[in-house]
Structures are given as structure tokens and as C-alpha cells.
Design a protein that fits this description.
The protein has 22 helices and 14 strands. By secondary structure, the protein is an alpha/beta fold. The strands form 4 sheets. The protein has a 5-stranded parallel β-sheet with strand order 6-7-8-5-9, with helices on both faces. A 4-stranded parallel β-sheet has the order 2-3-1-4, covered by helices on one side. It has a 3-stranded antiparallel β-sheet with strand order 13-11-14, covered by helices on one side. Strand 7, helix 12 and strand 8 form a beta-alpha-beta unit. It starts with 5 loop residues before the first helix and ends in a 9-residue tail after the last strand.
Length: about 625
């Protein structure tokens, strides 16, 4: 048949400008290639970036005067990568399923296998509708055509904004900029830059916001924007809030997903379908922040082939990387995790999720700011600072709940929020005895002195707390933070030094008091757990045992013991480091006690020289 739409086809699409415009652009692409519909073989159309495939599929059926046949798979028009449906096998186009095909429509050329591309008569990139097409759609809709200048501006807009302008009967050309607001998300929450805290992330977010503004105005291509970040940190530090507030700051919608929800959909195909839907919802050309929680659960490809479930994780990660790489303009991906080391390195490479930030529990200043944000003008800042002092170790979520509960109490008495409502909800705190404070200080002094003596750090800051919440599941009585010596190529010696530093707190207690507390163990992330994990990785993964051997990646090893022979080596290594650090600190009891006394007096002490021997 001749490749022209004709009056009948135009009338058919007069109420559907999207399909009419798709018909125009398909025919234009064929004319440019010197081809026609219905010729021998099949042609591949790749729709404009950010455009839906549905209108192009409908247009091709209409132009060919073909019908959909849901039973016979020899349909003339097909999508290269149709939407996944739960419980239905996913049928992407393949070289073995081309019977009867005349038109293949793809959102991205990557959706089409290379052998299918080779077999096609032609592969055509469909251009956006022209100003002439847009005004033809206006006439068919019985609306006044636009000026040539306005039609040209609309041709560059996203598909939804273009169709909205075509359908609007009374569009004022002098206010054409209002079309840009159609793909700015309506936000009801605060902008990131209105929130307290997040000081580690705000510089990056401000640069991103400025680049998004340049992209919107056409001054910067999206490909030059750094648009992915991984946020790590313990629960309650505000990772979800950050994603929502960032979306509000950018004027983007927020698409939230968790890897757990994807996997809960069922079998592998169902997981992939859920994953694809999240990416598709974000990738509509309107601007979105795609927030993916439990990011570490996406898995990683095993370095030792033959592990059970290897195929499952390989397919999941490969599909995830494919979706990530092919995201269109206007999508910012934020991943959240508590375990960044478990994420496949390929996901974090440049051009993907290339920025990494760590959130920590808020300090006193940030806690005061968070309380101020949630209380508004109800409570003086000085009073909130006093309240924040009593909430050491509280997360942003904890602070929000405290204010919410306080407001509820005030409402129950039909009055405004008052300071006493907050005070009444402060956690009960007990004071450490003088002996307990000295033990905490001795423990942290051991960490600090050994870290400097072994060249693990160039400075160390010790802090202890005189009070604690007895109802908390865990609490820190003391903390040592370090300025670490860069260790880009860890050696057997530097890794052993890490074990020694981990043991140093407990060793200091043993050296000074002849007795140890349980504060060094009992949880993942504790001193003893860190020392044990480093030793197991050295023996079972890094090949640093007596006989170099690889039993798996650090994630493969997990938290369980190694085989009996290797576990014996781990025990020997840990015993050697324990004896080494215990000897060092036993010989330097006076220095430990001197530093501990200073810590008890001042609550916080920073040192840059240990004053003890570096080798023992």
C-alpha cells in the first residue's frame, strides 16, 4: 500500500492527537528512507527518547489496516520489549519469533537483539513531530493552529506537555512557558535546602540542582550531569527523607522502591517485572528521583563460579545494570544501604551510581536544628538546645517522633505545644559511676594510643558520656574517632594492625583493671567482631594465611566460621595480635591512666602522639 495517511486515517485519529502525531512521524521516517509499509521484510522504528511506544504501535496497526491477534503470534506489529505482566512469561523479540512481522517498535535500540537488527530491512530513528504535524493535529481537533514559532517550541517539549498544549483550546501563546511547569512535580514536603542537617550531601545536591536548571533551559545536556548517589548509614539517619527532600528541591517526582519489594513479587520474571516497572515509572521524561532502598540486597556476582543461586543473581544484576545504563534524561537514582561493601562494584562505577555519601547520627547542633524544624516557633532555640543535649545518640526519626508525641499530648489538653511536653518525653537517663567513667576512658585511651603507635592514624579524638539510657538496646559510653593514615594497598602488616587497634580497648581494661567488660563484643560491628572479620577475610579471601587460598569473597564468607583448618589459623592470628597489644598496654599502664584521667575531666580529648613504643 502507499505510505500516506489519507483523509480517512486522519479522521480516525482526529480525537487522538498522540496516535495521529505518531502516524505522521512513522510515515515521515519511511519516506526519508525511500521505503513503504507492506514491503518485503520488516522495519524497526525506534521512537523518540522519552516518548511512549503505545501510540506508535496503534498508529502502525492503523496504517497497515492490521488487527491484533492475541492467539496467533504472527502479529504484523509488535513491541521489541513489551511490558512485563505478572504470571505471564516475558516475550522479548527474538530471531526465532519473526513470523508475519512487518513493523517492530522499540523504545531503545538496545531492546532489539543484534541478529534481529541485521535481519531487518531498515532501522529508523523516528524524529519528534514537526511544527507542521503539531498544527495539523490542532486542526483535526478543531482548534486554532499555533504560530510557527510556538509550534517549533512545543516540538522540543516532552510528549505529555506537547499533547496537553495541542488539546488546550485556549492556550495563550504569550504564556507558553507555563508548559514547562507541567512536568515539574507538585511537592507537599520540604525542600532539602530547608531542612537542617545533611551537610555532607548538600554541596553535591546544590550542584545537581543548578545543573538540572541548566538542563531544563536547554543549556546543558543531561549526559554531562552527575546524577546518581549511594547513601549509607545506620537506620534512622534520614536516607528516605533525603531522597524525598531532594526530589522536592529539584521539582521532580519521587519514585520509591525497595529491592525487597521487587523480590517479594515472586519468581525471577516477577522480580524483573517489578524492577522494570519502577524504572519505567521514573523514566517518562518528566523528571524523577528514583529512590531504591535496601540497595545491598540487589546482590553481587560471585567471584567463585558454581555457587547456588549464581544464575539468579547474575540475571538480576545484569538486568539492573541494563536498566540503569539506558535511563533517559531527567532521572536521578539514589540508592540507600546499611552495607555499602556488599554492593557489586559494577553498579558503583563511573557513569552509574558514582557518588557515595555516609550519613551519621546528628550531632548536638544538628539535633537542635531538627527539633527547631519540627517545633516551628513554639519553643525558644535555647531551650531546644538544652533538650538536644539530653538526646545524644538520637536519630532524626527519633527526634521527629518525640515532637509528634509531644504535640499529641498538647492537643489532648486543647492547647499549643509547650516546653514541658518535650521534657516529659525525654528518655530516662542514668549517670555512670566514677569507676564506670574511668573504665570507659581507659577503654578508649587504649584504642587511641595503639592506633597512633602502630601508624594506623595520625590523630585520635576520645569522647565519653556520663549518662546513658538504660532502655536502649545499645548505647555508646565512649567513642574514639581517627584521622586515618591512607591505606590504599593494605598489606598483611597493616591488616594485622587493624586487628590490634580493635582489640586495644579490651586490652587496656585488662592491663589496668585485670578485668574486662562486655562492651567490646556481642554485636555485629563491635571491636571483637571487627577483629574476627578481618582475620577471616585475610585467611579465607585475601590469601594471607600460611597457605594462600581463596574460599570466597568477603560477602560469601559472611559471619560464620571457616573450615576447621582455616579457622585454626584465624584463632592463632587473633591470639598473636591480642598478646601483642596486651603486652604494649601492660607496659604503658601509667600512660593509659594519665590519658584516661584527662578524658574523665574534660569529656573530650584529642591526641596526636601516643608516647608509647611502636613495636612491642
Amino acid at each position: 500500500m502507499r505510505f500516506e495517511i489519507g483523509r480517512a486515517l486522519a479522521r480516525k485519529h482526529s480525537g487522538d492527537p498522540g496516535t495521529f502525531l505518531a502516524s505522521c512521524t512513522l510515515v515521515r521516517a519511511l519516506r526519508a528512507a525511500g521505503l513503504r509499509f507492506g514491503a518485503a521484510g520488516f522495519v524497526i522504528f525506534v521512537v523518540p527518547k522519552g516518548y511512549r511506544t503505545e501510540e506508535y504501535e496503534e498508529a502502525a496497526f492503523a496504517i497497515l489496516k492490521a488487527k491484533r491477534d492475541w492467539v496467533d503470534q504472527q502479529t504484523k506489529v509488535r513491541l521489541a520489549n513489551p511490558p512485563r505482566k505478572k504470571g505471564v512469561p516475558h516475550r522479548r523479540i527474538s530471531i526465532f519469533g519473526l513470523n508475519g512481522l512487518e513493523v517492530l517498535i522499540a523504545k531503545d535500540i538496545g531492546d532489539v537483539p543484534k541478529d534481529v537488527r541485521f535481519a531487518a530491512t531498515a532501522v529508523m530513528l523516528v524524529e519528534r513531530p514537526t511544527p507542521g504535524h503539531i498544527n495539523a493535529a490542532r486542526r483535526l481537533s478543531q482548534r486554532v493552529p499555533f504560530s510557527q514559532e510556538v509550534a517549533a517550541l512545543l516540538a522540543e517539549k516532552p510528549q505529555n506537555a506537547l499533547l496537553a498544549a495541542v488539546l488546550k483550546p485556549n492556550l495563550i501563546e504569550g504564556r507558553i512557558d507555563e508548559v514547562d511547569d507541567l512536568f515539574r512535580a507538585e511537592t507537599g514536603g520540604p525542600s532539602l535546602f530547608e531542612l537542617p542537617g545533611y551537610e555532607e550531601l548538600k554541596p553535591w545536591a546544590r550542584r545537581l540542582s543548578a545543573d538540572v536548571a541548566r538542563w531544563r533551559s536547554g543549556k546543558l545536556p543531561w549526559s554531562l550531569i552527575t546524577r546518581g548517589a549511594l547513601i549509607s548509614g545506620p537506620p534512622g539517619t534520614g536516607k528516605t527523607m533525603f531522597a524525598s527532600a531532594l526530589a522536592n528541591a529539584l521539582g521532580f517526582k519521587l519514585i520509591s522502591a525497595t529491592v525487597g519489594r521487587w523480590q517479594a513479587e515472586g519468581h525471577l520474571d516477577d522480580t524483573l517485572a517489578a524492577m522494570q516497572k519502577s524504572f519505567s515509572d521514573a523514566d517518562d521524561g518528566h523528571g524523577a528521583v528514583l529512590f531504591i532502598d535496601e540497595f545491598d540486597s540487589i546482590g553481587r556476582r560471585s567471584a567463585s563460579p558454581g555457587h547456588r543461586n549464581d544464575h539468579y543473581w547474575l540475571v538480576v544484576i545484569t538486568t539492573f545494570l541494563d536498566l540503569l545504563t539506558r535511563l533517559g534524561d531527567g532521572v536521578v537514582v539514589i540508592g540507600a544501604t546499611n552495607l555499602p561493601e556488599w554492593i557489586d562494584p559494577a553498579i558503583l562505577r563511573a557513569g552509574r551510581i558514582e557518588n557515595q555519601f555516609e550519613l551519621t547520627l546528628p550531632d548536638h547542633k544538628s539535633r537542635t536544628g531538627i527539633l527547631k524544624h519540627h517545633t516551628g516557633e513554639s519553643i525558644p532555640l535555647e531551650s531546644l538546645s538544652d533538650i538536644a543535649e539530653e538526646l545524644d545518640g538520637a536519630s532524626g526519626a527519633d527526634l521527629e517522633k518525640l515532637v509528634r508525641d509531644a504535640r499529641e499530648a498538647a492537643r489532648s489538653e486543647d492547647r499549643d505545644l509547650e516546653l514541658r511536653d518535650l521534657i516529659n518525653r525525654l528518655p530516662a537517663r542514668l549517670r555512670h559511676t566514677a569507676e564506670q567513667q574511668l573504665r570507659l576512658a581507659v577503654h578508649e585511651a587504649g584504642h587511641a594510643l595503639v592506633s597512633l603507635a602502630l601508624g594506623h592514624a595520625t590523630s585520635a579524638t576520645i569522647e565519653i558520656r556520663d549518662r546513658f539510657d538504660p532502655n536502649a538496646t545499645e548505647f555508646l559510653g565512649g567513642l574514639t574517632s581517627y584521622t586515618l593514615v591512607p591505606d590504599y594497598l593494605p598489606t598483611e602488616t597493616s591488616l594485622r594492625n587493624r586487628i590490634a587497634v580493635s582489640y586495644a580497648g579490651m586490652a587496656a581494661e585488662a592491663a589496668v583493671f585485670g578485668d574486662r567488660s562486655l562492651g567490646s563484643g556481642g554485636t555485629v560491628g563491635s571491636d571483637v567482631e571487627r577483629a574476627t572479620s578481618v582475620a577471616r577475610r585475610m585467611i579465607g579471601s585475601y590469601g594471607l594465611g600460611k597457605t594462600p587460598i581463596f574460599l570466597g569473597t568477603p560477602k560469601d564468607l559472611g559471619y560464620g566460621p571457616l573450615p576447621k583448618h582455616q579457622e585454626a589459623e584465624v584463632s592463632q592470628m587473633l591470639s598473636e595480635e591480642w598478646e601483642r597489644v596486651l603486652t604494649m598496654l601492660t607496659e604503658e599502664q601509667e600512660r593509659v591512666l594519665e590519658l584516661a584521667a584527662e578524658v574523665v575531666t574534660n569529656r573530650s580529648v584529642r591526641i596526636e602522639h601516643s608516647g608509647i613504643a611502636e613495636a612491642a
